Amino acid sequence: MTQAILEGPISIDTCAHTRTHVELLPPGSERYGRVVCVDCAKQLCWGPFPQNVSRKQQNAIYIRQLLGSNRLTDWERGYCEGIQHNHRLAPHQQRLLDGLVAKYNTERQRQL
Ligand SMILES: [Zn+2]
Q1: What confidence tens digit (pLDDT) does each residue in 43-56 have?
Q2: Which CA distances in Å does 99 have to 65, 69, 70, 106?
Q3: pTM for the whole structure
């Protein structure tokens, strides 16, 4: 599992089911996530890369980065913890999260 894969998704296995979900890998992993069958739990392929992910998955990443940044105010930290397991945000919640992301610039630029 050490070879670098630049394009996804990479097919690994198949099954007869159609429902899948993506399990995110920890930040810094070579791959973004695993696509797993909901019915039989087989890993079907490596997940889509971040430019293709849904808003819901992107939110999960942002929230994790914000909570991991140690720069939030008490209120902001409480807010992020509150929405951490509710990734289907209402529009005003999404705006708040987007504002925090902009404020703390949680993209990867700081690592460049
Ligand atoms: Zn299956």
Answers
A1: 988 876 655 557 77
A2: 14, 15, 17, 11
A3: 0.48
